[in-house]
Design a protein that fits this description.
Elements lengths: L2 E6 L13 E5 L18 H4 L6 E6 L14 E8 L1 H7 L11 E4 L16 E5 L5 E9 L10 E5 L4 H8 L1
Antiparallel strand pairs: 1-2, 3-4, 3-6, 4-5, 5-8, 6-7, 7-8
């Protein structure tokens, strides 16, 4: 699918991954199907929700394990959303301060996670009407499913105004 424009956040920090968000403009609409669906943005109560303790879905075609092959088919799983405090403790040896611009999710046992090649993919909640809402964008982690390290996601609700500006 040809991309005609990429709008990256002007204040993206490659050291801390703060503002790790972009909007792609495609030449034509993407055909919807089994692996490609519309997704809602987090408005209303989801805009302010901390999400901690909720189960979310992730999906992607990234590596099946760290250093392994990429998946030939869309992979998806459910993972728990962790607190920012848990995330900060896990990544305490880094220079990252986990503000509410981030979300952290994944099993601390290390059994489920996004992996390389999944970056930019969705962290999403499923509502009672079976609609997905994107609450996070896969950003970074320590390897893949490393015990004690949740994955880190850009919190979409913090960028809704910026996203809306890019869509007009």
């Amino acid at each position: 699918m040809p991309v005609v424009r990429i709008d990256r956040h002007a204040e993206f920090n490659s050291r801390t991954y703060l503002n790790d968000v972009a909007v792609l403009t495609l030449r034509r609409p993407v055909p919807l199907g089994k692996d490609v669906q519309l997704i809602c943005l987090p408005y209303g109560p989801l805009r302010e929700d901390a999400y901690q303790g909720r189960m979310a879905n992730i999906a992607g075609w990234g590596e099946l394990y760290y250093g392994g092959p990429s998946s030939a088919s869309l992979q998806d799983t459910r993972i728990p959303i962790q607190s920012l405090e848990t995330c900060g403790e896990s990544f305490k040896r880094t220079s990252i301060t986990f503000t509410d611009h981030y979300l952290c999710a994944g099993s601390l046992k290390g059994d489920k996670d996004a992996c390389r090649g999944d970056s930019g993919g969705p962290l999403m909640l499923l509502d009672q009407e079976q609609r997905f809402t994107i609450i996070g964008i896969t950003s970074f982690g320590r390897r893949c499913a490393e015990p004690g390290y949740p994955g880190v996601y850009t919190r979409v609700a913090k960028y809704l105004d910026w996203i809306q500006q890019k869509l007009v």
